[in-house]
Amino acid sequence: MKLLPLASYLAALAALLIAPRVNASASPVRPEHRVGGFVLGCQAYTFHKFTAFEAIEKTAATGGKAIEFYPGQSLSPDDKKTKVDPTASDETIAKLKAKAKQHGLLIVNFGVVGIPQDEAGARRVFEFARKLGVRAITIEPSADQLDLIEKLIKEYDIAAGIHCHPKRANKPDYKLWDPHYVFSLVKERDPRFGVCADVGHWTRSSVDAVAGLKIFEGRVISVHLKDIVESGNPDAPDLPLGLGVTNVKGILHELRRQKFDGNISIEYERDWEHTVPDIAQCVGYVRGFADAETKP
Length: 296
Hints:
This protein is of the alpha/beta class. The chain has helices at about 5-20, 50-60, 90-100, 120-130, 145-155, 180-185, 200-205, 210-215, 250-255, 275-295; strands spanning about 35, 40-45, 65-70, 75, 80-85, 105-110, 135-140, 160, 195-200, 220-225, 225-230, 240, 265. The strands form 3 sheets. It has an 8-stranded parallel barrel, surrounded by 7 helices. A two-stranded antiparallel sheet has the order 4-5. Strands 11-12 form a two-stranded antiparallel sheet.
């Protein structure tokens, strides 16, 4: 047997140790969970006027195949006191998983969730995510939390994507809207520590979303997909994909180029109680993009 030179062996070992992995407890992604090659569904906050069970039903009605839950949503019309959050019981988690399975949805993510400063509280978030079977969580941490979060990413093998809200003049200390700043926080850390690219909020902050994705190549954990009316306006309304100023086609091209395999959550923040038709149109846009790309 031919032995590798020591330098080659050490390089191979280092590559193995730092390579991104998928949470071993996460539910497997099957072909039926994809739309146009992407793991596509809804962020449940789109349906925050409803319960988590109703969000599952509505996501399925749009043609989405995955769902990202957020903390604080009531469980079901029959149980509005129980919330979807890291304090949820095993029974509650089992009910969520069964409901999602009934409607053919993959539970892919949880957030935007606050990470407590204490390790016990932070660990509770990751333990909940593990039981829920997600591949990642979406967070907006403070800089002093990063070491603890990275430690738990490694321990639980659950990725974490830093999310942003729009840049606002009355919040000069808020920096997460800036992809360069967020990249500076994660660039030397575990490759499972990256960005939840909210491309609509980037556009609201006058950030070129495609350029933002390029900054994080290899660290795009998940995407919140939106199209909006106007760039540079933090309050610009959403539109169905392809009708606004967000470069949705360019975003999908870039994700495909990067061989992105995280989840895309459509987060539609408009007409809260009557969003299913518009979101179905968004799902159709992604499906149509894929169909057009595969034709000669």
